[in-house]
Amino acid sequence: MVFCSGTAGNGSGGIAGPAHARGLTSRAGEQKHRYRCIFTDVDALDLIMLGRRLTRIGEAVLRGSAAGPTPNGQGLVLRDVLANPGSSISEITVRTGLPQSYVSQTVAGFRDRGLLEISADARDRRRTLVRVSPQHLRDVARKGSARADAALAKALGDPGTGPAAAELIAALAEVAARLKPAQPGPILRGMSVTESGE
To answer: I want to staple 16 with a disulfide (CB 3.0 to 4.6 A). Which of 20, 52, 65, 192 is the partner?
Structure first.
């Protein structure tokens, strides 16, 4: 894969295909191309590890410096409820693979902190339904708009003033824009509903 940022003669930028890459290499000794290209082969494991690393950086920015990371099991429960609002404890247990007692305890703890809301199922009062509280969705939306450039530059070993970090961050922003889904997922849909209801 060849990723290029910057501008060519036609003002475009982005992913360069094999033919374009061959053209760049064949002219490399003749002229300096206006693209800055990264020639690399990315396998599936590389992509997974990159995604997880970027997720940790994003979560750290979202939490802020004062808060510690949420334990993995609790984070799994919260993400499941975000993606599946109105789920029962049993449904969360099946999807996460965690013990039901742990799920129940985690949900109760998040409820006490104001992150989740619990209600009885109108069709079966014995069932407890769980959803993320509107206030937590508003908090996530607000914190989610925080800039992550400084955290990315730090992870790259750059103080943030060097051109290398700026170019890599710009390339990452281009990839994020190209891979953005046409329709928002359940978490973003929930945020949109909450914001429109304010």
So the answer is: 20
